[in-house]
Structures are given as C-alpha cells and as structure tokens.
Amino acid sequence: MQRLYEGEKVLTPENSPEKSSHFYNMTLALCLMRKIQGKRLPQKDTKLLVKYLLSIDSWGVYELRLFNNAMFIFDHASLMALTQIAIDRSKYYLQLPGYSDLLSSILSNAIELLIENHELEFAKKLLAQNEGNLDFEKITQSKIKIIFLAALIAEKQRSQSSVPSSPEAIIAACYSLKAVNWSNELNKYLQDWRKTTK
Q1: pLDDT for 34-72, tens place per residue?
Q2: How confident is the model over 167-185, as pLDDT tens digits?
C-alpha cells in the first residue's frame, strides 16, 4: 500500500493536484493505510474526494470504482447520498458492458456497510430507493448479495435476532426487488423440496 501511495504521489502534479486522478488514487491509498494503522483519516483530502465526486455530472468507470473502493471513508448519511448519486449519474449507461454489475456491486457494498454499522433503517431506505434502477433478472453475485441483504434486513426488523433468513424471506425479497423469475423458481424449488420431505 505504501508503494502505491508513493507511486501515485510522484505522479500527482504539484499545481492543482485535485485535477489529477492520481491525487484521488493517492488519497484512497493514504486513507487505507491510516485505517489499517488505526489512525485518523485525512479530512482535508477526503473532503476534496467528495467534492470531486459531486462535481462529476456523469460518473464513468473511474468514478464508480473510486467510490466503491472509498466507501469506508464516509459516514452513513454521506454514504447513502453518494451511493444514490453514483446510481443516478450512471444509470444511463446500464446497457454498456460492466456498468450494471458495477452499480449493483456499489449498492450491495453500501447496504452491507450500513448493516455492519447497525444502520438498518438507512440500508432499508437505500434499498427501497433503488428497487427499479437495476435489472435483477440478470443474475450476478452482487445482485444475489442484494437479495440476501434485503431478506436479512426484513428478518432483523421482524425479530431483531440474528436468526438466518427463511426461504420465504428470500422469495419475498425477490418479489420486492421485481425479480419475478427468481422468486418463481425459488418458490417452485421450495414447494418441490417440501413435498419430498413429508
């Protein structure tokens, strides 16, 4: 990590460093090192990172990956807002190769971070805001993760326990995420399985 930081620092111009992608790569590397060391994150540089992301009208692959890797920097309110901005400013490219997967990865990582930080209401709200933005019929690992996390949120809110989600909860999550084919297949599998275990 130190070598990455030093390499990006050398490539960052001294005049107007915030106009170079190397500056943001350097900032991310510095934040990761500080987090590993248990030190405070550099507030000035992280504010410039947020300012940069907010200044971009249409996020490309670089901005999406930068944000996806920098999520740990942000508090839950900023994380929610930036995740929504990332999806809103990139959803026009969903038909291009890789964009849908990257956006679903961003959404699943943000929801997971919110859950880990015990911010279930924020995670639920972020999930609800983005139900129609991604195509859940095309299976990817991050979309499966979103469906599982949606079931986990629903289960936790019902019982406030850490009991694993029931098959019905996963099926309900598929329906709520408009992944009808998945939910129908899972329901059929569940019904067939229950018939054979009677």
Answers
A1: 888 888 888 887 888 888 889 888 888 889 999 999 999
A2: 677 777 777 777 787 778 7
Q: Which residues contact 43 (CB under 8 A, 6 or more apart)?
A: none
Angstrom distance (rounded) from CA 188 to CA 171: 10
Is residue 127 classed exposed, middle or buried when 0-12, 13-18 and 19+ CB atoms within 10 A define those classes? buried
Quote the pTM value. Answer: 0.72
Q: Which residues contact 90 (CB under 8 A, 6 or more apart)?
A: 58, 59, 60, 64, 99, 102, 103
Residue 114: strand, helix, or coil: helix
Rounded distance between C-alpha atoms, residue 149 and residue 133, angstroms = 17
Distance CA(149)–CA(182), nearest Å, equals 16
- Helix %, strand %, coil % for the chain, to 5? 75, 0, 25
